[in-house]
Specification:
Layout (H helix, E strand, L loop, with lengths): L1 H14 L7 E5 L9 E5 L34 H4 L5 H4 L2
Antiparallel strand pairs: 1-2
């Protein structure tokens, strides 16, 4: 019985091995090829200055959201797109 517990402990320890992914990685966004850009981990596209700017028209791929954003009057101030002055002119 002790042998079974010891083998189970060894197998479970190797299954939980941690791999450090920190460092510089090559990056391609979307259909762009080849991988001609870099990101540093730990980090995100945002912290690496990559990707598109987020706006009220940003398409999200996740499904966890508060749908009241779209119909709650309190949230309206966050739904309004603010344009630079230069864009309002001419």
């Amino acid at each position: 019985m002790l042998l079974v517990i010891m083998i189970g402990t060894v197998l479970s320890a190797t299954a939980q091995q941690v791999i450090d992914l920190s460092g510089t990685w090559k990056l391609a966004l979307g259909d762009k090829q080849p991988y001609n850009d870099n990101v540093t981990l730990p980090g995100s596209l945002l912290t690496n200055g990559k990707g598109d700017e987020m706006t009220s028209h940003t398409v999200w791929t996740g499904s966890t959201y508060d749908s009241s954003y779209y119909f709650n009057p309190y949230m309206e101030k966050y739904r309004v797109e603010v344009y630079p002055i230069a864009r309002l002119c001419c």
